[in-house]
Sequence to fold (224 residues):
Amino acid sequence: MTTAIFKTWTEFYERENKEVNGVSPEFAALYPDYEKQNESNKACWNCSDCSDCSDCSRCSDCSGCSDCSGCSRCSDCSRCSGCSRCSRCSDCSNIAYVSEKNEQGAGDAGRPAFVVPVIENIHTKVLEAVKAKPELFNMESWHEEIENTEGNVCGTTHCRAGWVVTLAGEAGKALEEKTSTPFAAMQIYFKSCPAVPVSPVRFYENNEVAMADIERCAKEESAL
Fold:
């Protein structure tokens, strides 16, 4: 199937032929052979090396795609619109479109419903954080306080999404409180590095698998 470059997710969403695959200019620069990598796909956005699928069970538009670890549009929410105030979007990955709606003024009086902070070199910083404090990396909960033998709180563990929100500081915390941890992390990931997207299914993996993908993303980011 044909794969074309679209400036934004909205432009891709509004394409005339809904079977055409799409990639962003940033993605095309990162994967110059994007057309070859999507020959067997249909209606996919920013997909590469799709083989041995395990993550596309919720994909509503994409066909022929497998191993969607880099896909950030694969979910029941692929046709989502106007949901900038949604706080239960644990399965939603249509972040580009939601972000555009938010920035265009989805809040009261035309103001954005929420502010998404940007973390420069986000994938590298997440990797550095989890490697610097491996004992505080726990994919089984968003945030969880841990106690020492005396029963005093001595730290807080974070999963991948939790670390993203934490690294974003007060702005990340504010977005998390207004929406949810996974939604906030998805927004921050997309806003900070759209060229290396992270699927929300990655927020529900075990430590080993999550660490491997964090390292992959950091490597791809450093190559940009």
In short: The radius of gyration is 18 Å. The chain has nine helices and four strands. The first strand starts at residue 3 and ends at 5. Strands lie at 3-5, 21-23, 143-147, 153-158.
